[in-house]
Amino acid sequence: MSIIARLIPDRFVLLLMATILAAALLPVTGQAAVYAGHAVSVAIFLLFFLHGLRLPRAEVVIAMRNWRLQGVMFGFVFVFMPILGLAAANAQGGLLPEGLVVGLLFLGILPSTVQSAISYSSLAGGNVAASVMASALLNLAGIFMTPLLVALLIGAGGGAAIGSDTVLRILAILLLPFALGQLAQGWLGAWAGRNKALLSVLDRIAIVLAVYVAFSSAVAGGQMQALDWGVLGTLTAIICVMMAIAIAAAWALGGVIALPRADRISLLFAGSQKSIATGAPLAAILFAGPQAGLAILPALIYHQIQLIIAAPIASRLAKARDA
């Protein structure tokens, strides 16, 4: 893959950027915003139903047998990365508006991405089966862990709406549809396997809708006015440092605990990458009003940068394996 090709955002990132631009130019406001919020809830419900439908229970059981690797990944994603996000938020020295500081914390809390972590692990010679199930399990755990960590590290002072009503929304919009999807595998599992492209489109529609409504709220609330090129440059630099530390720490940890090389590669990608597919819906649920738009922005930037640097890292690891 050429350097130029790697610098161009993938099509989904381009779609999300277009969504942010649309929200900036034509934000949904007033009563329409209320209806759009309801539409987001329905879309997120469908998104997590499809997650439950496509995650085979038997594969989850098999993956959990490799408890050592899965445990290390869990600890890295939900202990080390939140600490890294907290350190970045404290180290920015007042250079970023409060909404983006919260976004750095939220970035650290998010679970791992699925598709790119699996793809690059395969390219680099990692443990693909472990990567598949680690990504799935981490995103499933994220339904529980991300709200918990948001409450602990961000709280209401950072704009996070963590109360009894939020807990009920998490149960109703995230956990219930996932459980229903698991129950429906016997009836709809074969259909889901035959229609992966359609389900992928439905996933992306849900994410785009969540991002559009979140950024519309931020625009209507005036929070986007604080974003200039200097702020975005500072934010991007901090995110690059976070990613460099995450990659180095994941690789070093795998060496310290003497993981097999294939497992070490899987930890590298599953541990250091972050999921916008899970992050956007969670931000829509966990953050009140305009805060959601700014909270998800660092994750969008991180997502694009991880795609740019993952390919050369995977290629280098593959060449080292074949040497």
Any overview of this molecule?
There is one protein chain. The protein is mainly alpha-helical. The protein has 15 helices and no strands. α5 packs across α8. The longest helix has 32 residues. The radius of gyration is 19 Å and the shape is globular. The two termini are 20 Å apart.
The portion of residues forming beta strands comes to under 5%
Q: What oligomeric state do these chains adopt? A: single chain
Put simply, the count of helices is 15
Order of helices and strands: HHHHHHHHHHHHHHH
> What is the SS-derived class?
mainly alpha
| Overall outline | globular
As residue ranges, the low-confidence spans are: none
The chain-level mean pLDDT equals: 81
Please give a handful of descriptors for the protein shown.
mainly alpha, 0% strand, 323 residues, 15 helices
Q: Nutshell version of this structure?
A:
With 323 residues, the protein is mainly alpha-helical. The protein contains 15 helices and no strands. It is globular and about 55 Å long.
